[in-house]
Design a protein that fits this description.
By secondary structure, the protein is mostly helical. 58% of the residues lie in helices and 9% in strands. The chain has one domain: 3-Layer(aba) Sandwich (Rossmann fold), CATH 3.40.50.300. A three-stranded parallel beta sheet has the order 1-2-3.
Length: 138
Amino acid sequence: MACALANKACRQGYSALYNRAPRLFQDLAMAKGDGSLASLLKALAKTKLLLIDDLGLAPLTDAERRDLLEIIEDRQSLSSTVIPSQLPIENWPDHIGDPTIADAILDRIIHSSHRILLKGASMRKKRSNLTQTEKCEK
């Protein structure tokens, strides 16, 4: 669903960027090492729709939570950020770690967000079942 939103944004002329959280944090760490962090953060801030997928797969390190705060702060009230996660929002503070940074991140996200709660089986699972059925019918 998040990728469909990004696709629609692109079709309407907006810039969009999809990143899985682990890869985003890896890119940020590499940018710190090669001196390109400022330009990466600037590019993330300028993107009209940023999708950060799979947040919640693993607890955040200190550097990751600070980077996430910077990204969210830079984008607040200027651009849209979509954060699909299987982790319920009430568990985010524990996942983020540091209570002060978690409060700052959640304060910036929750009070200006639209939450969409999805129910039902995973689309990947449904597609897999369809593929299996198609193979059996052939």
